[in-house]
Specification:
The chain is of the alpha+beta class. It is built from six helices and six strands; from the N terminus they run ααααββββαββα. The chain is extended and about 70 Å long.
């Protein structure tokens, strides 16, 4: 009995030693085969058609100031009461005839690396500050036929075109403003296009049920006065 217990203890000790050595070998193997993984994190943009570059910050403080300023800006611009409700027909028309900002090169032989950016965003910012009213549409607002705007012959009556009505127009040839066959345009710009003898046909139009007064110019001025960074870029 004594010999059996002794042998048993010896076998157990030997097995424990082998297990430890096995664990050590396994650990060494894991240590040798461990690979370094690199994660590339990209921000999610709502639009894939933008040509603007991202803004990078080198400190957490700058990043937090930018996020806070953007949150404050968005809260003043986007209001629940300014939101329109659209029917399925509206969504189809908005999707097919939506405005696409033209972008490209005047010369085919362009070396992009030699180009510099001038006034990247101020044109859009200025246009944004000029908005004093915004239309709000309801899904119950019907599209009306454009023939009602033809008083005599084929001449459109500018006096019947309202600034914040949304018009769907058909053009025979594209230009820098109308780059599709069917386009959406507000009456404020449609009047100028008709005055410039643009060849177009008004298919239908939609009148908003409510118009909000806004002052985006003050919102932009406040953002410009907000301290974000000492870096001029």
């Amino acid at each position: 009995m004594i010999m059996e217990r002794k042998n048993s203890r010896q076998r157990t000790g030997k097995m424990d030693k082998e297990d430890k050595m096995g664990e050590k070998d396994t650990h060494n193997k894991k240590k040798k085969t461990r690979k370094v993984r690199t994660y590339i994190i990209k921000t999610q943009d709502l639009s894939k058609e933008i040509i603007e570059r991202d803004v990078y910050t080198d400190t957490e403080e700058k990043y937090n100031r930018i996020v806070e300023a953007m949150f404050d800006f968005n809260s003043k611009v986007f209001s629940e009461s300014h939101k329109s409700d659209y029917s399925e027909l509206d969504v189809t028309i908005l999707d097919e005839c939506r405005t696409v900002v033209p972008s490209g090169y005047f010369d085919k032989n362009v070396d992009v690396k030699t180009l510099c950016e001038i006034d990247r965003t101020k044109a859009f910012t200025w246009a944004f500050t000029q908005i004093k009213e915004i239309p709000v549409f309801s899904e119950f607002d019907d599209w009306k036929h454009g023939d009602a705007l033809l008083p005599n012959g084929n001449n459109w009556d500018n006096t019947k075109i309202e600034d914040l009505n949304l018009y769907m127009v058909q053009v025979s040839s594209s230009n820098i403003f109308f780059n599709k066959k069917y386009n959406l345009v507000y009456g404020k710009f449609l009047k100028k296009l008709i005055e410039n003898k643009t060849d177009l046909n008004i298919i239908c139009y939609k009148k908003p049920y409510y118009i909000h007064k806004v002052n985006y110019s003050d919102v932009v001025d406040e953002l410009n006065q907000t301290f974000l960074s000492d870096d001029i870029e």
